[in-house]
Amino acid sequence: MQQHFLEYKSSVINYYVLGNGAKDLFCFHGYGEEGSSFKFLEKYIGPVYTLYAIDFPVHGQTKWNEKDAFTTNHLFSIIQKIQLHQNKKFSLLAYSMGGRAALDIVENFSNKIERVVLVAPDGLHLNIWYWITTQTSVGNKAFDYTMEKPGWFFALVNISGNLRIINKSVIKFVHHYLDDREQRILLYKRWTCLRKVRPDLHTIKKICAEKNIQLKFLFGKYDRIILSKRADIFKNAKNISIRIIEAGHQLLKDKYANEITALLND
């Protein structure tokens, strides 16, 4: 795995290169992770793909110094710079949070896409709390306050758990990312920076049918963070398939590599 740094406007984008195949595959990681999360795939991809795994802003070693929020226009420009503006088509592999960005790329730059594999992807439904905290000024201020003084939020989460309104996996997920103050500040920065990445699923469904783009979903049957039913809008759609395996949310692991690469190569 090779590491590279790309100058983009006033920012520096970190990305990793794996393999040496003829086809370009851009990989988008999940929340709190980085491009190196895809390293385990290097021995499986063979001569087919070259993987480019980008660190998102406020993740890994990418330094995002722009005043504006990160958009898929930025992301597509970064992809073009990595490809040296060769006007070459590429495929996408995205996990969790990265799925939202991949869907947005399909919606806005479909003429450049060959196929897309989304692993337990975010972006399949409107999270009302995410919308309030990132798309409204009042909500964003309340979000900022809560990340500094989260006591009331933890109390609400624990009460919801006791009443079985939310499941134990979600409670564990919340505490994992919010117990530590530094992690709370990062959450605020990450959600705010990526707030403009908002795919339209109906448009994407239509695009895949019209432009013959292969869109493949992979979910864990026991995932309580990203539920497979969120992809029901794509059931029986042309060029779109949904696969559910015996697993949870953490699918970027060596033991699931064959499942992932099968979707890339079939």
Q: Please indicate the count of domains.
A: 2
Overall radius of gyration: 18 Å
Strand/helix succession: EEEEHEHEHHHHHHEEH
Percent range for β-strand residues: 15-25%
Number of helices: 9
Percent helix: 25-40%
- CATH homologous superfamily of the largest domain? Alpha/Beta hydrolase fold, catalytic domain
Oligomer: single chain
Q: Residue-averaged pLDDT, rounded?
A: 92
Name of the top-level CATH class of the largest domain = Alpha Beta
Please tell me what the overall shape is: globular
- Content-based structural category: alpha/beta
What does this entry look like structurally?
This protein has 266 residues and is an alpha/beta fold. It folds into 2 domains: 2-123 and 199-265, 3-Layer(aba) Sandwich (Rossmann fold); 128-193, no CATH class. The chain has helices spanning 72-82, 97-108, 128-135, 137-148, 151-162, 168-178, 181-193, 201-211, 257-265; strands at residues 2-8, 11-18, 23-28, 49-54, 90-95, 113-119, 214-220, 240-245. Strand 1 (2-8) and strand 2 (11-18) form a beta hairpin. The mean pLDDT is 92.
Core attributes:
single chain; Rossmann fold; 266 residues; alpha/beta
